[in-house]
Write a structure and sequence with these properties.
Layout lengths: L2 H6 L3 H14 L7 E5 L8 E7 L6 E5 L12 H6 L3 E5 L17 H15 L4 E7 L1 H11 L4 E9 L9 H4 L6 H8 L2 H9 L7 H8 L9 H8 L10 H10 L8 E6 L7 H10 L4 E5 L6 H4 L1 H14 L4
Parallel strand pairs: 3-4, 3-5, 5-6, 6-7, 7-8
Antiparallel strand pairs: 1-2, 2-4
Helix pairs in contact: 4-5, 5-11
């Protein structure tokens, strides 16, 4: 590729950013980068994803929430890649993906971005593994393409409306205060590295979560994710989330697993019970000594329960 071709390739900035991340994070994040161009007015930009394992094996699709990125799956990616193809996305504006200031950071748009990559890779018989707002995004994709979904794994997430929002998150939605705290102070992402787990994160891991959002300009999506939480029917994303909720009972025939940090103050056990009501056949695994970052607090327990679930419900 010539310098001119590289400058015109929408994937270039993502791949350069990924190279810098691998140098900075070393063995904590050793994965080869991939990038998928966006479309429309943003076709000059791209979305980053990890694609590990044998492409001929059943795929696992891992979707993070806010304010994390595919770094959150750094243990599960190699754990799963022996028996699966593992694809882990960074939502646009997050992680190593491009971070445009002027972009429709809505639930429906995030769903469309997942759809673009999955269809480009032609993933089928997908095991969908989701956390935080990855749940709504992932089930938004599943609603559009139920024939591609084989198994479901939910970790401290939601895919249905709720009018409950923790005050510390609601404050980040206040005009003036929210943009200053989230973008200028990086308060939302920094607080998550302390408040989202029951055990202190090692310094290197904490730095890894924060690495892609070191500058205020890189935090737009973190703020927009918070602002996009639909708390009433007047919110632009409420209808999309209601449609996702309405589609959930259609997945009662799919093997489903709930792995839940019970000490999560955001996606509390009430959200786990919400999934249990909608998917009554789902396996439920509450972990009493884990918080929102359940995969940080109890990584071995998460892996053990996930392995047992996948073995009990083989694909193909």
């Amino acid at each position: 590729m010539t310098a001119v071709e590289a400058s015109a390739d929408p994937r270039t900035s993502v791949l350069l950013r990924a190279a810098a991340a691998r140098e900075a994070l070393g063995t904590l994040y050793p994965f080869a980068p991939h990038a998928q161009p966006l479309d429309g007015a943003h076709a000059h930009l791209a979305q980053h994803f990890v694609d590990e394992g044998d492409p001929s094996k059943p795929p696992c699709l891992l979707l993070h929430g806010n304010p994390t990125w595919s770094f959150a799956w750094r243990r599960l990616i190699p754990f799963l890649s022996g028996e699966h193809r593992v694809v882990a996305l960074d939502h646009v504006g997050m992680g190593l993906s491009d971070k445009p200031a002027d972009y429709p950071y809505t639930l429906a748009q995030h769903v469309a971005n997942v759809e673009r990559i999955v269809l480009a890779l032609d993933l089928k018989d997908i095991t969908l593994i989701v956390h935080d707002w990855g749940g709504a995004i992932g089930m938004g994709f599943a609603r559009r393409h139920p024939e591609r979904i084989a198994r479901l794994v939910f970790m401290n997430t939601a895919a249905f409306p709720s009018r409950d929002i923790p005050r510390r998150i609601a404050m980040c939605r206040w005009p003036g205060v929210g943009p200053f705290v989230v973008k200028q102070l990086n308060g939302f992402a920094r607080a998550a590295t302390v408040m989202a787990s029951t055990r202190p994160l090692p310094p290197g891991v904490r730095a890894g979560y924060l690495w892609p959002h070191r500058d205020a300009a890189d935090r737009t999506a973190i703020l927009r994710f918070v602002q996009d939480i639909p708390m009433s029917p007047r919110h632009p994303s409420w209808a999309e989330l209601e449609a996702i909720d309405a589609a959930l009972p259609g997945f009662r025939d799919r093997p489903a697993c709930l792995i839940w940090g019970e000490r999560d103050w955001c996606f509390t056990p009430a959200f786990r019970r919400g999934f249990e009501e909608r998917l009554p056949n789902a396996e439920s695994h509450p972990l009493d000594d884990a918080g929102h970052y359940v995969f940080e607090d109890q990584p071995r327990a998460v892996e053990a329960r996930l392995a047992t679930f996948l073995a009990a419900h083989p694909v193909g």
